Amino acid sequence: MRKIALWFAYLLPVVLAATSLIVAPALGSAAMHDLPAEIERLYNRGLYRQAAEALNAAVQREPQESSLYYWLGRCFYELRDYNRAISSLERSVALDTDRSEYHDWLGKAYGRKAQEASLFNAFFTISLARKSRHEFETAVKLDANNLEAQRDLIRYLLNAPGIVGGGEGTAEEHIQTLSMVDSIEGALAQAELFVTHKKFDQADQEYRKVLDMKPGRIGVYFEIAEYYRDRGDAERMSNAIEAGAPLAPSDHRLAYYRGIALVVGNRSPAEAERQLRNYLDSVPDNANVPSHSTAHEWLGKLYEREGQLDKAVQEYQAAVTLDPHDKQAAEELKGLQKR
Q: What is the DSSP letter of 25?
């Protein structure tokens, strides 16, 4: 039971956070034409509580409109109110069982709720984990072209304990299936499998293969940049970022990744700070983009390296406040407070 609790506390956030690399930074395609323009604007500005209030009013007028419940669930997800996110997303699925994206986001909401419950109720956590896998599987069955759902399911299978449905063999089968749908996403998933086993030479080969394919989606380059970030290779991280930049020069995520690459490479601290601040000031916190908590964490690393310990403490505290499950930021904060 402890192994499962630790998985949900520390590994599951990594599984869910990876969503931001696959989808666009703005709203996804799901039922956008059904949303009133003013609610879309509220959501895109990060005003999730106001958007939820407007959606609740709309639901009263159109109680059988599944897309309203779906976006209401997305608002509650962003507000970290996972009970209401689950309730709204379950309602959207009940009204329209054939929407792949509805099932995928319900799976994410189950996963986040399981993460919350993991330290208190192991049996409830197991139940939620199994529901999460079921929703990911359903999303993939309904639409094999839903790349976000495909990767969600594969990550779950690669990382989850067997008792809640994890299994590398099944993950490999899904990777092969994904490769037939989208060769680039299949190669990325294969590289991720190698990383899981710390087979970094083979992972490097897969990522280089993907770069040679010259993908047309900037999120692919960001995913590769994150791999090199985790390997501490600032040069290759920067190369991946700049290879993708011409695809979407105004994508605000570029500031986030460029700032981190400078921190990793211990270069131009003032520019690294400017880039990360620009990201925080220009992008509302959202599950479809790198989280504000991680941006604050990297600012904390920058300030700590520069000897500005008071500022570092403030940034790590901001990261933990935004995401109490950010184990790395919590450990860094604890270490500085002991000095």
A: S
Do 3 and 161 touch, CB atoms closer than 8 A? yes
Chain centroid to Cα 61, Å, comes to 33
Cα–Cα–Cα angle for 45, 49, 55, rounded to 5 degrees:
95
Structure tokens at 331: 């450990």
Cβ-count burial of 149 within 10 angstroms (0-12 exposed, 13-18 middle, 19+ buried)? Answer: buried
Number of Cα atoms under 13 Å in the Cβ half of residue 108: 31
Residue 262 CA from chain centroid, whole number: 22
Closest CA to 191 of 179, 199, 180: 199
Of 211, 19, 199, whose CA–CA distance to 105 is shortest? 19
Q: Which two tokens stand for residue 260?
A: 């981190």
The answer to whether the CB of 116 falls within 8 A of the CB of 82 is yes
Provide the pLDDT for residue 120.
67
Q: For 125-166, how does the pLDDT look when each residue is reduced to its tens digit (9 = 90+)?
A: 889 999 999 999 999 999 999 999 999 999 999 998 888 888
Give dist(CA 119, CA 5) in Å, integer. 6
Tally: H helices and E strands in the chain: 19, 0
Q: Which amino acid is at 195?
A: V
Instruction: Look at residue 10 and tell me whether its pLDDT is greater than 50.
Output: no
Residue holding tokens 């919590």? 330
CA distance 243 to 215: 10
pTM of the model: 0.90
Grade residue 192 by pLDDT with cuts at 50, 70 and 90. Answer: very high
Which helix or strand (DSSP H or E) is residue 57 part of? helix 48-61
| pLDDT at position 16 | 57
Question: Which H/E stretch holds residue 136?
Answer: helix 122-142
Q: What is the pLDDT of residues 277-322, one digit of tens each?
A: 999 999 999 999 999 999 999 999 999 999 999 999 999 999 999 9
Residue 33 DSSP label: G
pLDDT, one tens digit per residue, over 86-97 is 999 999 999 999
CA distance 70 to 248: 28
CB contact at 8 A, 182 and 143: no
On whether the CB atoms of residues 58 and 67 are closer than 8 A, the answer is no
